[in-house]
Amino acid sequence: MSKRRLGSVRPPKRCRSDMDNTSTSDIVIINGNSHPDLANMVAERMGLKNGGCSVFHKSNRETIVEISDSVRGKDIYIIQTGTKDANNNIMELLIMAYACKTSSARSIVGVIPYLPYSKQCKMRKRGCIVSKLLAKMMCTSGLTHIITMDLHQKEIQGFFDIPVDNLRASPFLLQYIQESIPDYRNSVIVARNPGVAKKANSYAERLRLGLAVIHGEQKEAESDEVDGRYSPPPTRNSTPQHAPSSSRQRTTSVSVGVPEHPVKVKPPLTIVGDVNGRIAIMVDDLIDDVQAFVAAAEMLKDNGACRIYVLATHGLLSSDAPRLLEESVIDEIVVTNTIPHEIQKLQCNKIKTIDISILIAEAIRRIHNKESMSYLFRNVTLED
């Protein structure tokens, strides 16, 4: 008979639910005013309740953040996306992050499905790279990690001094094409301009469809506008007189000084590819000002496209975009719920929404459990 020492007690077996509760007991999900519905959906998918955080504005428009639950030593996930009220969205995020930092949170992860100012990632005229400034502000506020989705340019990740996970919504959109567009094999993926050709080509290769690119512009580009920097320099001899004679013989002299940049002449809108009798599917990362999409759709219709779809990750749909889309020849606009657009859907019956909360919830779970994120970039499905 086996002997058992006095005082030794076997630990009780832990059930599956206990392990699940332990793994998520130190996760706190809070959100600002930008997209509370998405935050609630993510928390529900993870089996958590949304943390007690209220964000409101005083009469002088200052932002006040009050966190009712303890965040000391916990992993905080702040869900705050960019909307048409981008400046308030940013300030709410920064103040929430700093409040958690000063309350001794262990880690603070900013979940920003649509990063505001992401289109201002290049130097234009005498402006500045605003997304670089925003990245510095976020790092200073106390954020230790960023989760975002389909950045306008992937290089924006380099602006941050903290890890950035740029999730992809393309598997959701690809699945929508395969399951919800009748006879999608008769489709052609369309790039609205050459800048989107790389994304459109990726969709075309994954779906094994043809590719068409719309080339040309209807209006003058921003980079072609008259600016003081284009004023010609004074004319002077470009070859120094004190240079050796052999050097002067091999140096080409320009009589007018510094040569001018040739003026870019953009051709009228032209389609490179065949869309006659086929379904045209335009893809992009953001739909905001829809006039360019409407003009491209009219051109596709004139060239024989039977149906026209527009798919994008972020549906900002500013100004009178819903009215223009409703009156256009576009048959359907498909966007994800990274940005709230319920009001726009009431104004335009063509707008459809894909829920990506499962992807954000899985990303949060993997980061918290220190699992690899590469799986999300290879195999993303809509299954629960």
From TrEMBL:
- Which region ranges are annotated with the description Disordered? 1-21, 219-261
Q: Where is the Ribose-phosphate pyrophosphokinase N-terminal domain?
A: 27-142
| Similarity remark | Belongs to the ribose-phosphate pyrophosphokinase family.
Gene Ontology cellular component terms for the protein in this record: cytoplasm; ribose phosphate diphosphokinase complex
| Keywords attached to this entry | Nucleotide biosynthesis
PANTHER family in the cross-refs: GH23275P, RIBOSE-PHOSPHATE DIPHOSPHOKINASE FAMILY MEMBER
GO terms of biological process kind: 5-phosphoribose 1-diphosphate biosynthetic process; purine nucleotide biosynthetic process
Regions of compositional bias (Basic residues) in chain numbering? 1-14
* Presence of the UniProt keyword DNA-binding in the record: no
Please note every region of biased composition (Low complexity).
245-256
Protein name per UniProt: Phosphoribosyl pyrophosphate synthase-associated protein 2 isoform X5
In the UniProt record, the gene name given for this protein reads LOC111597393
Instruction: Report the Pfam families cross-referenced here.
Output: Pribosyl_synth (PF14572), Pribosyltran_N (PF13793)
Q: Where is the signal peptide?
A: none
Q: Which GO terms describe its molecular function?
A: ATP binding; magnesium ion binding; ribose phosphate diphosphokinase activity
